[in-house]
């Protein structure tokens, strides 16, 4: 059984990915690209993600464009994806203003 910070094998990562909405695995990272209304909405989303990351002490890479936010998770300590990445992704998906967003 894997701990939260153990590297996941491809089959486990694929199974966990199936439980998320709009996320994909790109170059060993768990990624979601979220279109938003404007720059203010992009910053609001980025700040909400930052709050989750701080609570979980697991920080993603964020890329903010005018009306799009890209979120990438990877557990650098294990050199790949861990359960922590998927836990944080699931918490992000529960943000109120993402419930209707598609990516």
TrEMBL record:
It catalyses: (4aS,6R)-4a-hydroxy-L-erythro-5,6,7,8-tetrahydrobiopterin = (6R)-L-erythro-6,7-dihydrobiopterin + H2O. The keyword DNA-binding does not apply. It comes from the Bacteria. Signal peptide: none annotated. Pfam families: Pterin_4a. Its EC number is 4.2.1.96. GO terms for biological process: tetrahydrobiopterin biosynthetic process. Keywords: Lyase. GO terms for molecular function: 4-alpha-hydroxytetrahydrobiopterin dehydratase activity. HAMAP family: Pterin_4_alpha. Belongs to the pterin-4-alpha-carbinolamine dehydratase family. This is Putative pterin-4-alpha-carbinolamine dehydratase. It comes from Rhodocyclus tenuis (Rhodospirillum tenue).
């Amino acid at each position: 059984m894997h701990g939260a910070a153990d590297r996941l094998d491809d089959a486990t990562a694929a199974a966990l990915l199936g439980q998320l909405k709009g996320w994909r695995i790109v170059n060993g990272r768990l990624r979601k690209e979220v279109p938003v209304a404007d720059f203010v909405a992009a910053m609001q989303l980025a700040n909400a993600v930052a709050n989750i990351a701080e609570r979980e002490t697991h920080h993603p890479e964020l890329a903010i464009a005018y009306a799009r936010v890209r979120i990438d998770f990877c557990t650098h300590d294990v050199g790949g994806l861990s359960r922590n990445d998927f836990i944080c992704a699931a918490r992000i998906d529960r943000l109120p203003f993402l419930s209707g967003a598609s990516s």
